[in-house]
Amino acid sequence: MATQTKYIDLKTAIPGPKSKPILERLEKATPRAVGIYAPLIVDRAHGSLLTDVDGNTFIDLTGGVGVLNVGHTHDFVKKALHEQVDRFLHTDFTNLPYESYVRLAERLNAKFPGGGPATSIFFNSGAEAVENAVKIARSYTGRKGILSFERAFHGRTLMAMTLTSKVHPYKAGMGPYAPEVYRAPYPYPYRCEFSGGEPNHVCNEKCYANIEKALMLQIAPEDLAAVIVEPVQGEGGFVVPPQSFLPWLRKFTEKHDILLIVDEVQTGFGRTGTFFATEQAGIRPDLLTMAKSIADGVPLSGVMGRPEVMNGPGDSQIGGTYVGNPLATAAGNAVLDVFEQENLLEQAKRQGEHLISRLKAMQQKNPLIGDVRGLGAMVAIELVRNPKTKEPADEETNRVLQTMIQRGVLMLKSGIYGNVIRFLAPLNTPLDMLDEALDILERTLAEVGGR
Predict the structure, then answer these.
(1) Tell me, what's the pLDDT at 1?
(2) What b/e readout covers 399-421, taking b as 16+ CB neighbours within 10 angstroms?
(3) What proportions of the chain, in percent to the nearest 5, are helix, strand and coil?
(4) 418 Cβ partners below 8 Å, 6+ apart?
(5) Contacts 24+ apart (CB under 8 A), 342-349
(6) What stretches pass through the bilayer (predicted)?
(7) For residue 142, how many other CB atoms are within 10 A of its CB?
(8) Cis peptide bond upstream of 176, omega within 30
(9) Three-state secondary structure call for residue 382
(10) Is residue 99 exposed (0-12), middle (13-18) or buried (19+ Cβ within 10 Å)?
């Protein structure tokens, strides 16, 4: 039976009759590694709404996995792309440069956390940005070691996959991995393994001490080129560390003359309520990686950093054929125009406050919600079978998400147990649209939780 609300408009069951045969073709034409999450075929999308080939319209809270902070097909971005298509599509910037690349670099450099001069270089994907940040760090320091954290996600290419801590599904059977990569614990307030009932600050101090211990047991600090860290862990479960964590880590790296790489691939471009999440820590990193929402879905990523560090590699040591392509840099400049003209940072803060308020109210009524956490609009709930034991409710999470698809809301999970539901709605999503999705989520959680 057709279901219609203010925004959601379901005309068929999911998948619909037009989606089914395409999904069957997809299964035959692509390998299982592609891994389809939602059983539908997209036809068009705008803002925070997505319509499939059967005419079903969904509220999209996936945001292209954090790529669409300004929304699907924003008018500014569409206009910039159409104009660029009419001019030229490719030259290879290092051979025949163009102004849009330079302008985008200048505008982003002005946003470097902590202030001071910065330079930027562009690539295609977040993984490429991470790979090249490591190359830059090693070239500048002359050292080889890289330290990353438990539950980290930095990409799927060799170095990025090695830095990534989540084994399934990203690393299992994919070794051997890149050498000279080491790992330390990352603070997880909801599941602090160092807590014995002490106040949070005691747990934090124990965690920081264990980070130093983990490092000392694996590599001499003078052999470490860089530490790479997510200000808020993304794929690891939207884990928000204590406010003291990044300042402590900055002091630690400075003490040992180690570079600090902040991976803002998912946290950047307003997701946490500031343009870069690092701003809220009041520190200046040495290098910063960015991607996802940088160009509203056109493949683009970058590394930004202190000029002396960025100049570590020699002429032509860093680059690639398609990196910083003219379509992407045109879209990137349009995205910055959206931020400037639509005050998206304030919208991100309002969205985050609204989400936290509603989700905490749900938590009071439903023990399936073990934790509500977030920074800005980077918000998540962690589902557990028992609020005391915190046993991960992974199967229940899957049921919730699949039911939500059938009811017209698209959401994603994360976390090493697969029990965290994350919110990645465009930052300009109307609050009444969020409420429509949240009403459905509340009903679905109650049903799955048996309440």
Answers:
(1) 35
(2) ebbebbbebbbbbbbbbbbbbbb
(3) 40, 20, 40
(4) 392, 394, 397, 398
(5) 342/70, 342/428, 344/69, 344/70, 344/270, 344/427, 344/428, 345/270, 345/273, 345/274, 345/275, 347/427, 347/428, 348/69, 348/270, 348/271, 348/272, 348/273, 348/376, 348/377, 348/427, 349/273, 349/376, 349/377
(6) none
(7) 8
(8) yes
(9) strand
(10) exposed
**Which residues share a beta bridge with 392?**
384
Name the burial class of residue 445, with classes exposed (0-12), middle (13-18) and buried (19+) by CB atoms within 10 angstroms of its CB: buried
Output the pTM of the full model. 0.95
CA dihedral 126, 128, 155, 59 (to 10 degrees): 30
Residue 344 tokens read as 């998206």
- CB under 8 Å to 168, separation ≥6 — which residues? none
Determine the Cα–Cα distance for residues 309 and 315; give it in Å rounded to an integer: 14
Burial class of residue 196 in the structure, from the number of CB atoms within 10 Å of its CB (0-12 exposed, 13-18 middle, 19+ buried)? exposed
Q: Which of 294, 269, 328 is nearest to 80 (CA)?
A: 328
Question: Which residue's structure tokens are 């996995």?
Answer: 65
CA–CA separation, 250 and 227 (whole Å)? 10
Helix (H, G, I), strand (E, B) or coil at 368: coil
User: Strand, helix or coil at 329?
Assistant: helix
19: CB partners within 8 A, 6+ apart: 39, 40, 41, 52, 53, 54
Pairing of strands 287-290, 259-263: parallel
Domains of the chain: 3-60+344-448 (3.90.1150.10), 75-342 (3.40.640.10)
Residues found in the chain? 451
Q: Please compute the mean of the pLDDT values over residues 16-37 and round it to a whole number.
A: 94
Task: Please tell me the predicted confidence (pLDDT) of residue 229.
Answer: 98
Count other Cβ atoms within 10 Å, centred on residue 92.
Answer: 14
